[in-house]
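pasting for the record
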Amino acid sequence: MICVLFLRCIVRVFHFFPSYFSGSFPTIPSFELCTLLHLSILLHLFLLLTTGLSLASTGSFKEAEEALLLVQSEKYKKEYIYLSWLARCHIHNGNPRAAWELYLKMDTSTASFNLLQLIANDCYRMGAFLIAAKAFDVLERLDPDPEYWEGKRGACVGVFQAVVAGKAHSDELRDVLALVRQTTNPQVEYMVRIMRKWCNENGVKLV
């Protein structure tokens, strides 16, 4: 139905503009003109959305993010397909916190759970380990699947390694220690001991 309306809108637009450039304006009833303008706006938003999704699917994340951020329709912006691709763009463009903020604004639902999984896995693959750890932590609390603990453990170790290598701020270890302590897995104590030992040896204060 929407596609049919868009096609009608395109036909009407192309019917109107040749007359505009020739200096002859067709008479369009005010209601029809309002409808035409409304459909033109919808068409513009639809094209922005499809352009953004198309660019993202081919790996052009910078251009895709720019296109998706131009979408103003609140209805489109609440759709999972929009949120998931925008989150993926944020992550691949080096802004994983923006993706995390998208999740935090969502109500608890299947869509938010799916977005959380996407953020956790994409952040892990892109080396954004702190956000990955936070996402896996929430997933672990929502679903006690051992896979989520493994993802969280790997992400926390990734943060620790980044801090040791000087690629991340030591403050991130505080967040990591708080996250791992929320898990009853017996591996937690060993991880905490190793991290605390390194901090003590390198003069890093965790409080």
